[in-house]
Amino acid sequence: MSKETGVIEIRIAGLSEGIYEYDFTCKATDFKHPELAEPGFCNAIDVKVVANKTDNDIIVDIVTKTVAELTCDICLAPLKKEVAGIYRVFFVFDEPGSNTEGFDENYRILDRNASSVDLTEDVRETLLLSKPLKVVCEDNPKCSVYHDGAPGSPEDEPEEESPWQESLKKLKKKYH
Ligand SMILES: [Zn+2]
Predict the structure, then answer these.
(1) What's the 3-state SS for the chain?
(2) What is the structure's pLDDT at 100?
(3) Ligand 1 centre distance from Cα of residue 148 (Å)
């Protein structure tokens, strides 16, 4: 796989211990990923990166925020929703004797001479995780007819079903 220039990258060369904040604004298309290219993520994406550097490691917190353009799972009405994602990555400097026990799969070994850390893939992951699994509009009276009943029991829905309602049910199942 060819190495692409990172979209989200922080410089760590010469950083002393401490907490550093970085702000980025990007577009989903910057990530060249089919799932992010879908219409939902069409607005600007704010990315905040907080790096806490110590002598042995860097803990990086990633927060993504964007207004996703979605459609209601029930009535298919278009709606906008602010979505946020949070992700934490541990970077441990590669050195004999460094203790990496207790870290989860998010930890990476980092070359002590590395001048920067590429967070592009992690930000992309954060965005993908922030995508809501269920989307239901809140103040659409036409839609509330359907979620007045007991939630999660499709049997309570009207007996007569038009083909589009059936396809919606299938769609809803897909998201459960
Ligand atoms: Zn709706």
Answers:
(1) CCCCCCCCEEECCCCCCEEEEEEEEECHHHHCCHHHHCCCCCCCEEEEEEEEECCCEEEEEEEEEEEEEEECCCCCCEEEEEEEEEEEEEEEECCCCCCCCCCCCCEEEECCCCCEEECHHHHHHHHHHHCCCCCCCCCCHHHHHHHCCCCCCHHHCCCCCCHHHHHHHHHHHHCC
(2) 58
(3) 12
